[in-house]
Amino acid sequence: MMNTRVTPRPAGWSWPVALTVLVFVLLLLVPVYASMTDSSYVLLQFSRILVFALAAVGLNLALGYGGLVSFGHAMYIGVGAYCVAIASHYGADSGVLHLLLVLVVTAVVAAPVGLIALRTHGIAFIMITLALAQMFYFLAVGLKQYGGDEGLPIRQLSRFGALTGSHEGLYLALLACLGASLLLLRRVIRSRFGLILRASSMDARRVQAVGTSPLGYRLLAYVLSAELCALAGFFLANLTAFASPAYMAWTASGELIIMVLLGGAGTLVGPVVGAAGFLLLEDVLKGLTDHWMIIMGPVIILIVLFLRNGLWGMIASPKEDR
After folding, report:
1. Average pLDDT estimate for 271-294
2. Nearest to 278 by CA among 26, 31, 56, 30
3. What are the φ and ψ backbone dihedral angles of 243, each rounded to 5 degrees?
4. How confident is the model at residue 163, as a pLDDT?
5. Residue 8 above 80 pLDDT?
6. Residue 61 domain flag
7. Planar angle of CA 310, 53, 41, nearest 5 degrees
């Protein structure tokens, strides 16, 4: 019998990876299409999709891989937006300064919040994250010198040289940040850190029993996920030239969770697909009827019930996507 040697197919040529590259190529062509058709709305809408895709990717690290059902991650979008708005309010418009401020303030907020919340589990964790997020929401509402419940307009956007004020430049920066975040999380999830994080989400006691404390790993995952949400807030502030307490509302956190579940929790690209599907469906239904929520609710419920791995799960299993 002839002995034939089968050469394994390189992982880089897998269908999910090829489709991911195709998605990013299409997203890269959005500014070209918007310029050719003179449609600023298309660029604005897809910029908004990328903002919430970045936030959903961040939440997915905590929810999809860490099993941490946080009902307060929209708080960090608000923190990122207000860092830009308040710094601009005092005349500081350096983009680098804004970014540093967003990352540092978010770490200072997320570390103690995560430490408190991670002492609990299950419904108690959900309620604590919700309560702390609401506390920050009402804090923003109470800051009358920064607009209170009416929000704070941003007169000076983050300055990055020639890119300042360019909608195309902001879009491309968003796309680059989203791509870099996905590559970073892919390495994180495949590392020892990711292995312990996923094991902790299944049974933290067993991880503890083999001599590894899961608390530090889960806290780091929580803080990293908060940082990605805050980056989304940074971009949202520059996109809308506005910071509002509404960014921190518990309903915004609920929408983020829906995006993650809709695309596929525990998959790398799923939250991006979920954010795009959620916002595009919302946009289409709003154009059809004022009662769009009556239609959207059942559609999302059916997708989550019958597609256990979300929209992305129809194409790639969670194992293939990691």
Report:
1. 89
2. 56
3. -130, 130
4. 65
5. no
6. yes
7. 115
Neighbouring-strand partners of residue 159: 94
The number of domains in the chain is: 1
> Which domain range does residue 141 map to?
40-248
Inter-CA distances, 279 with 27, 90, 234, Å? 15, 34, 19
Judge whether 189 lies within some domain: yes
Q: Residue 131's pLDDT band (boundaries 50, 70, 90)?
A: very high
Torsion region of 241: left, alpha or beta (phi above 0 gives left; psi -120 to 50 gives alpha): left
Contact 45, 279 (CB under 8 A): yes
Two structure tokens written together for 237: 């502030």
Dihedral-angle region of residue 147 (phi above 0 means left; psi in -120 to 50 means alpha; beta otherwise): left
Note the pLDDT tens digit of each residue in 200-249.
Answer: 888 888 888 887 888 899 999 999 999 999 999 999 999 999 999 999 99
Residue 241: alpha-carbon gap to chain centroid = 20
Stated as kind and residue range, the H or E segment containing 242 is strand 242-243
Please state the pTM of the whole predicted model: 0.91
Pairing of strands 242-243, 152-153: antiparallel
Residue 317's pLDDT band, with cuts at 50, 70 and 90, is: low
Cα–Cα distance measured from residue 30 to residue 109, given in angstroms and rounded to the nearest whole number: 35
User: Domain for residue 268, yes or no?
Assistant: no
Tell me the C-alpha distance between 18 and 24, whole Å. Answer: 10
Distance CA 226, CA 220 (A): 10
**Residue 264 and residue 304: Cα distance in Å, rounded?**
9
Token pair recorded at residue 107: 């770490």
Task: Give φ, ψ of 5 to 5 degrees.
Answer: -100, 125
Stated length of the chain = 322
